[in-house]
């Protein structure tokens, strides 16, 4: 079965620094990978998608990379702000219409 | 405004009771999903439906049932057979998977329903 690991349960960084979150997967290769943000007690909100034939995707201060050889995606937030504090989830679609989520990494950005 | 509405937001249930969680969307999406989230964990797929009158089991379907009689609605029933039902339940919808170019396969989530078994 597919397994997704996100690098750590919690990540604490100083405001202005770059946060880097990791998503590793095993077994089958997904067609694409998504990143979501989840605030406490709320539903996740979609941030970015990257396809298996894409190496990098950017959106404002966010950057996602996808290395299908390493079976890994990196999610970067540059010039981080306290408002970026949240849990970030990666999701992979292995079968059409069925996404599998990682456990998430909780990011705290300190002023 | 378009979106997904889940109700109730909080629900308490006695052991042995069935409960039904409501999920309605006005986004005209074909696909709908139910996920379960436990503290400190990611989302696990319970059931999903890609078209009206059809649905498939996800990874943890035991003890749950769904129906998809209308495009807008995808209610989830947590039955007494579910051994550990206390959790945060999330409903989502999407246009379709991301197979088509230009489609992100983005899942739009509701605000969740928190079920507690007393």
Task: Summarize the structure in words.
The complex is a heterodimer of chains A (111) and B (118). Chain A has 111 residues and is mainly beta. In chain A, 0% of the residues lie in helices and 59% in strands. Chain A contains no helices and eleven strands. Chain A has strands at residues 4-6, 10-14, 19-25, 32-38, 45-51, 56-59, 62-67, 72-77, 86-95, 98-101, 105-110. In chain A, strands 2, 4, 5, 9, 10 and 11 form a six-stranded mixed β-sheet that branches. In chain A, strands 1-3-8-7-6 form a five-stranded antiparallel β-sheet, with no helix packed on it. The mean pLDDT of chain A is 91. Chain B is an all-beta fold. Chain B has no helices and eleven strands. Chain B is globular, with a radius of gyration of 14 Å. The model of chain B has no long low-confidence stretch (mean pLDDT 90).
Helix fraction of chain A, binned, reads: under 10%
Number of helices of chain A: 0
Distance between the termini of chain B: 35 Å
Strand residue percentage of chain A: over 45%
Largest interface: A-B, 26 and 31 residues
How does the SSE layout of this entry go?
The complex is a heterodimer of chains A (111) and B (118).
Chain A: E1 4-6, E2 10-14, E3 19-25, E4 32-38, E5 45-51, E6 56-59, E7 62-67, E8 72-77, E9 86-95, E10 98-101, E11 105-110
Parallel strand pairs in A: 2-11
Antiparallel strand pairs in A: 1-3, 3-8, 4-5, 4-9, 6-7, 7-8, 9-10, 9-11
Chain B: E1 4-7, E2 10-13, E3 19-25, E4 31-37, E5 43-51, E6 54-57, E7 64-66, E8 76-78, E9 87-94, E10 108-109, E11 113-117
Parallel strand pairs in B: 2-11
Antiparallel strand pairs in B: 1-3, 3-8, 4-5, 4-9, 5-6, 7-8, 9-10, 9-11
């Amino acid at each position: 079965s597919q397994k997704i690991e996100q690098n750590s349960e919690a990540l604490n960084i100083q405001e202005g620094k770059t946060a880097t979150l990791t998503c590793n997967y095993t077994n089958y290769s997904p067609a694409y990978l998504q990143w979501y943000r989840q605030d406490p007690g709320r539903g996740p909100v979609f941030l970015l998608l990257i396809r298996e034939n894409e190496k990098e995707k950017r959106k404002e201060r966010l950057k996602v990379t996808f290395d299908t050889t390493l079976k890994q995606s990196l999610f970067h937030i540059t010039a981080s702000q306290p408002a970026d504090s949240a849990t970030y989830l990666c999701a992979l679609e292995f079968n059409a219409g069925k996404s599998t989520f990682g456990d998430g990494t909780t990011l705290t950005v300190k002023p | 405004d378009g979106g997904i509405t889940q109700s109730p937001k909080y629900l308490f249930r006695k052991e042995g009771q069935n409960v039904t969680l409501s999920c309605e969307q006005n986004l005209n999406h074909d696909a709908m999903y139910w996920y379960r989230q436990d503290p400190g964990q990611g989302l696990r797929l319970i059931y999903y439906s890609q078209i009206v009158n059809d649905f498939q089991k996800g990874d943890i379907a035991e003890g749950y049932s769904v129906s998809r009689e209308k495009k807008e609605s995808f209610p989830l029933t947590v039955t007494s057979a579910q051994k550990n039902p206390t959790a945060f339940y999330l409903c989502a919808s999407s246009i379709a998977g991301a197979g088509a170019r230009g489609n992100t396969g983005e899942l739009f989530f509701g605000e969740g329903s928190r079920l507690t078994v007393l």
